[in-house]
Amino acid sequence: MSSDPRPDTPIDPTELSHTPAPPASADAPATSTKLIAEAAGTFLLVFGGVGTALFAANNGLAANGFPVGVGYVGVALAFGLTVVAGAYAWGPISGGHFNPAITLGLAAAGRFPWRDALGYIIAQLVGGVLATSVIVLIGLFGPDGWLSKAQSGGFASNGFGAHSPGGFGLGAAIIVEVLLTAVFVLVILGVTHATRGNATTAGLVIGLTLTLIHLISIPIDNTSVNPARSLAAAIYGGPDALAQLWVFLVFPIVGGLIAGFGHRALFERTAR
């Protein structure tokens, strides 16, 4: 029995993830508009995060011998900041998922219709691939050898074993992807709750949570928690990145589903 004497307000299945859904009206965005918003938001996330990793994380050494670049912290902030921007820009249109694991986690929690999940996921995958394709296009006009070096280095793809930044193995990658994706989805479900959430700060909290996740796990597997981000980088990262891609497609989704079903069972019970 809940200690709160007030029953929770029933969750509208169309409730958005990063921004609570507005009241239903004739002016509600069309499905095509929502899909464009999802593609745009995922484009921003992947272009901002992967682009920072490739262009700005390590630019070599300055004349005084100190490294030039934003490093792991800068990459983590880039991923978080893109989510903050996307949540406030496109969250009111589509919910601002930008991530197949979030879409499926929200559906498992009863916050999003299962029937709409496939369209969202396709839009997210398209947005991510467009982002890395633009990075490749920019690289074609970069310094001699820049693009081939980026691709031979994995193109900021996720990886384990020899392809982990810190040398962590498959088991470590599986654990962090399931655990951190579940944490991410649970935070989203909490801060966007219809009665307990806060729409004003939700996007900021979610972006900071993604930053924290990257600070933890970039050294382990270069941080996925998002199959769209992983696919977008791996298609340009070479055969090794593609061979390990399955881990970063499967286990973030597992974590998202665990969080969605778990949240629904533990935190959406009404008072009796």
Automatic annotation (TrEMBL):
The keyword Transmembrane applies. It is a multi-pass membrane protein. It is found in: Membrane. Residues 1-28 are annotated as: Disordered. InterPro entries: Aquaporin-like, Aquaporin_transptr, MIP, MIP_CS. GO terms for molecular function: channel activity. It comes from the Bacteria. The chain crosses the membrane at residues 35-57, 69-91, 97-114, 121-142, 168-189, 201-220, 245-267. GO terms for cellular component: membrane. Keywords: Membrane, Transmembrane, Transmembrane helix, Transport. PANTHER family: AQUAPORIN NIP1-1-RELATED, AQUAPORIN NIP2-1. Belongs to the MIP/aquaporin (TC 1.A.8) family. This is Aquaporin Z. It comes from Microbacterium dextranolyticum.
